[in-house]
Amino acid sequence: MKTIKARSDFERVYTRGRRYNHPLMRMVICDAVSEGDPGRVAFAAPKRLGNAVLRNRSKRVLRETARACDFPVPGHDVILFATAATRDAAPQDLCAALMRLSARAGVGW
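Structure tokens predicted for Ribonuclease P protein component:
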């Protein structure tokens, strides 16, 4: 799974991307820089979720969900944001939420 690492890429996705919300996670998605890119994903957890242990757990849960759902989508860069309900949700619920967000974004399978 390719991840977004550069701050400039993260900001590009965040400013130009379309936003979709679900109680279990939020998603910002935009087209990749060039045609045919394999797609990348980033995981974020805001400080309001709690201390570093809770934020890291939330990001680990999101990473496992993305792997289980064959993310990222080719040709798109995606940022997944954790919510307060993310770390306690069942894996199948998170996968269903990610698929629902992808379908709403028009990049579903």
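The chain has one domain: 7-101.
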